[in-house]
Every structure is written in C-alpha cells, then in structure tokens.
Specification:
The structure is a single chain. The chain has about 550 residues and is α/β, with parallel strands linked by helices. About 45% of the residues lie in helices and about 10% in strands. The protein is built from 26 helices and 14 strands. The protein has a 7-stranded parallel β-sheet with strand order 8-9-10-11-12-13-14. The N and C termini lie far apart (about 70 Å). The protein binds zinc ion (2 copies). One zinc ion binds near residues 332 and 334. One zinc ion binds near residues 403 and 457.
C-alpha cells in the first residue's frame, strides 16, 4: 500500500475523469452515469474511503457502488493509480486531458466547439466565451453549457445538499461527540441552490471538534477558526461552516445562523430588544422565546429572507404555510404514452397509495418528438382509455390532461376541439429558448388567450446549475394570468423548481393560485413533491392558494374559463 492517503475528493475526481474519457469516446452512457454517481456518493461521505479500503470494508454497501467500481476504488487506494484510467490518459490528446478535469463539461460537445473554432485549450475556450463567440457561433444553450462547465463552483442543488447534510450530521454526532448539531443557513431556509453548508453545534471546545473535522472524508482544510466559528473546505470542495453556541443562547444563535443578512438587519433595527437578547445574561433556549421577547410571532425558517415577514409577524399576520399533507392530488405526471417510465395504471395506483384523490396524466404533445409526444389520434385514444378506466375506479379519479407545447407563435399544439375534451391543460415551452424577453413574454401571453390554456408549466425553463432559462416579464404574465383565469405551477423537480420562490411570490401577491406538481416521469418521482412545497413556503403560500389542495369538484370549477 502506498503511504500517501487519498481524500474522498481525490478519489471522486479520478472516477469523474474516467467518466469524462469514456464519454469523450462515445462509450456506454450507463457506465458514464454509474461512475459519476459513485463519485457523488464518495464526495458526500464523512468516512475516509481510503481508510475503509485499508480496513477491508465492503464498499458495495454504499449506494451507487457496485462490484466493478468497488474494485476500481480498491486498486486506486492500494496502488495509488488506476490502470484503466492511466491507459486512456496516456493515449488521450492533450486537449482532452484538460477537458477531463472539468467534470461539468460535456467532452464531445466541447471537442466539436474546439474543432470548429480551431482552438485546443481551456484558456482559448474561456477567451472565446468572453468575446461572445460561443454564443454567436453555437447559440445560447452551448454558451450556457460552457459557462457553467467552466465555473469553479461548489454549489449544490438543495436535494444533493440534503445527503451531504445528513452525512455531516452523523459525523458530528458520532466522530466529534457533539450532542446537538442543527443544519442552519441556506439548508434550513430550503434555498434551491446551496453555496455553503452550515451547522450550529453545542460544543465546549470548537477547536477540538475541528481536529476531527480535518479528517472528514479523508482530509478537509480548516480555512478559518475562532473559538465560536469556523469555516472548513471538505475534500469535495464543499464549504462547511460551524458555529458554536451554549445551550442558554441556542435560540438566539439559531436565528442568527438561519436568517439571511436582510432578515437579521431588519431584526436588529426592529427594536432594541434584539441586542439585549444577544448580550444579556437571560436565557433564550428556543427561537420562539426570542421572537416572543421581541414582540413577534414565530417566523418559519423558509420566510427569513427579509421580505415582509417581520412586519407580518409584528401584526400576527404571517401566513399559515402549506405543507405536504395539504396536497390532494397530482396535476403534472407523464406515462409510458410519452416519455414516462410507468403506465397510466401504475401511476394511478401509486397516486392512490399516496392517498391522493386525483392524478392528472399530462403527456407531451405532438410537436415534442424527442419526448414521444402524442399525436392527435393517440390523445383521443388516451381520453377514451381514461374514461373507461375511471368507470372502473373507486376513490381516485384520473384526470385527462396534456402537457401542451406552446408553439413559437403562441399557438397551442392541439386543435381546440381536442383540447376541449381535456379536464385541464399544462402548457409549456420546450423549444426556441433563444428568443428574447419580449418575444418570449408575448408568446406566453398569446397562449394564455386560448381559453383551453390552464396552467403554465415550468415558467422559465430553467435547469438549476445547468441553464438559467429564458427571460420573461413575470409581472406582465402574472397580470395576464389573473385577468384570464390562468394559473402557474411550481414544478417540484429538484433541478427545476420553477416558478422560483421569487416569481411564485409575485403570483401569490397578485392573487393567482399555483399548483405544486412533480412532473413525475415515474412513480418514484412523486416523492419530489416536498421540494416544491419548500419553495411554495418560501414564497409565503397558504394551502388555500394551492390549486391541488382543492377537492376535484371545486378544482374543476376553478379551472373553468
Ligand atoms: Zn415540460
Ligand atoms: Zn412534464
């Protein structure tokens, strides 16, 4: 065994590089995915993989690590290198070696860019990006891909951060002997992109805790440390902030570490009692005790972003936020008729299992060929099929719907005499993302003029950490929706979460209801619902403003235009 120990971050980087080389050669995409997934698992672990291998631990016990990948990791730890990887490395062109170090770049796409621009290095790619040439020659999507791929970012989607948070919490409890460790900051506010993971801990000696944290995942760097606060960088690149608080001041510390800057600024200026709560000898073990002392009602963590929560808490007018139990049905789900993995019956059965009253099947429309969109005849047939199915069902109703493409001119992708037969529609943009803000806004406004338009699907088309989505004039669209009885969805898919909390807030303030949908492409994806609930809560939604909180007869009336 080599003397040098590898950190989890280093092991993950080698697996990612291997995935990049396989992808560049057009190799088996499942293999590429498997290596990437294993790398992500390894990055999130607190235990040192290196140590585990040296202690003959069976790595296949971890999710996403099968026999082949386990052997590769063992070889890497025991010999210091991975033969398969070294072979491809030694044969690879220099430009590919460089690309392999950027796991978020798609090597095949980037190599095509290199070829057409006559360049061969990341430095040149950055230059072309800055000059705007990637956009003019290859379009907005490619520009976004390159920009995201080159970012030295350790940002994570909230749902990925959840796994890391759980691992860190276990580590703090088991390895550091900490009695109390609460995730705070962005994770507690459920912000959809997490830049930094922070924990509040009850610890007598933070420095002693940090000596353990330095071994997280094999090796972590302690960037700054005082007696009460420290910032560490894990081998995966993730930033971990630890704040220590005595039990007596736990409530104050939770508020201080959870709220964003603006929330805290407003608390400090609300009245002089905040400073007293911080500095006095008085005990504030809970957040409730602190807010009560300030003369405010309890503010849910998701609302602590300095919007209107303090004014509302002062008047005891905070909304009673929606929660998962309030949801009576699903309104956006796909089946095997288009690009889903499960049949309509399977989706229905899973929805019934969840206790839903209804499930809307909204498969793709005819233009969206890549997602096997349904032809007019196929949708007619599906409507008859669902009618027959409903006649046999008890306790749950399958709603006839479609995710109808909004075409470039704002027309809907099915004729009205067909749309009329549906219980409701989800209307979405899936093409021509490159249009400007004015055109894209007009396109949606025109679509909303159709009386069979009901719910705007994933309003901006964003894919978090991948593409920002097209620009729209949200205020105008919300206004138009209100005047025409149209609605929005909060798409709970964790890489969409579209509407964003900010846009959802605009809809809520205009009195426009939203549906919280999962856009499930399989029965397992119904579980995404809670991520959409989180965002609805951040936007201040009570259950009464949520479409799929309504029982079907009331929902049906609400949707009628
Ligand atoms: Zn869609
Ligand atoms: Zn969809």
């Amino acid at each position: 065994m080599p003397a040098r120990h590898l950190s989890n971050g280093e092991i993950a980087a080698e697996l990612m590089a291997l995935a990049q080389f396989i992808a560049a050669k057009g190799g088996n995409p499942y293999k590429v995915k498997a290596y990437r997934r294993a790398a992500r698992t390894i990055k999130s672990l607190g235990e040192s993989i290196d140590e585990l291998v040296r202690n003959d631990f069976d790595l296949t016990e971890f999710p996403g690590i099968g026999q082949a990948i386990s052997s590769a990791i063992q070889e890497l730890v025991r010999t210091g290198t991975l033969r398969q990887l070294e072979t491809v490395r030694s044969q690879a062109a220099p430009e590919l070696l460089e690309i392999a170090e950027h796991p978020r770049l798609d090597p095949r796409r980037v190599l095509r860019v290199y070829k057409r621009l006559g360049i061969s290095s990341i430095a040149a790619l950055k230059e072309k990006l800055a000059e705007g040439e990637i956009r003019t020659r290859f379009g907005m999507r490619m520009e976004q891909h390159v920009r995201q791929g080159l970012q030295e970012a350790h940002d994570m989607l909230y749902y990925e951060a959840e796994t890391v948070v759980a691992a860190i919490k276990t580590f703090l409890r088991r390895q550091c002997g900490i009695r109390k460790a609460e995730p705070v900051g962005e994770c507690r506010r459920k912000v959809e992109i997490v830049r930094e993971i922070s924990f509040l801990v009850e610890a007598d000696d933070l420095h002693a805790v940090l000596t353990k944290v330095a071994g997280y995942g094999g090796k972590a760097d302690i960037l700054t440390a005082t007696d009460t606060e420290a910032l560490a960088q894990l081998s995966s690149g993730t930033l971990l902030r630890l704040t220590a608080s005595p039990h007596k001041k736990w409530g104050v510390a939770l508020i201080e570490t959870t709220g964003d800057e603006e929330h805290l600024r407003q608390l400090r200026t609300y009245n002089s009692k905040w400073d007293l709560a911080v500095s006095s000898d008085e005990s504030f073990p809970t957040e409730r005790s602190v807010y009560h002392y300030l003369g405010l009602s309890f503010i849910p963590p998701e609302l602590r972003e300095g919007k209107d929560e303090i004014a509302l808490a002062a008047e005891n007018r905070l909304p009673n936020l929606v929660c998962a139990e309030d949801i009576r049905g699903e309104l956006h789900a796909h089946s095997t008729s288009s690009d889903g993995a499960n049949t309509i019956e399977e989706m229905m059965a899973a929805a019934q299992e969840l206790g839903y009253d209804y499930i809307g099947i909204s498969d793709h429309s005819q233009t969206l060929k890549i997602a096997r969109g349904l032809s007019e005849e196929a949708l007619w047939e599906q409507i008859r099929f669902i009618d027959n199915l409903n006649a046999r069902l008890n306790g749950i109703r399958v709603l006839k719907s479609a995710e109808v493409d909004i075409l470039i001119d704002g027309a809907l992708d099915y004729p009205n005499d067909l749309l009329k037969e549906l219980d409701y529609t989800i209307c979405s943009i899936h093409s021509r993302f490159g249009q400007g803000k004015a055109e894209q806004t007009d396109r949606i406004l025109r679509a909303m003029d159709n009386r069979y338009f009901n719910i705007l699907g994933h309003a901006t088309g964003r894919l978090l950490l991948k593409r920002p989505g097209y620009e729209i004039d949200v205020e105008r669209i919300v206004e138009h929706a209100r005047n025409n009885r149209c609605f929005f969805e909060i798409n709970s898919s964790p890489d969409r979460l579209d509407l964003s909390a900010d846009n959802a807030r605009i809809a809520r303030q205009a009195g426009v209801k939203v549906a919280i949908t999962t856009d499930a492409h399989s029965t397992g994806e119904f579980a995404y619902l809670r991520y959409g609930i989180d965002q609805a809560r951040r936007a201040g939604f009570p259950k009464t403003s949520i479409l799929n909180h309504l029982p079907w007869p009331e929902l049906e009336r609400t949707l009628k235009r």
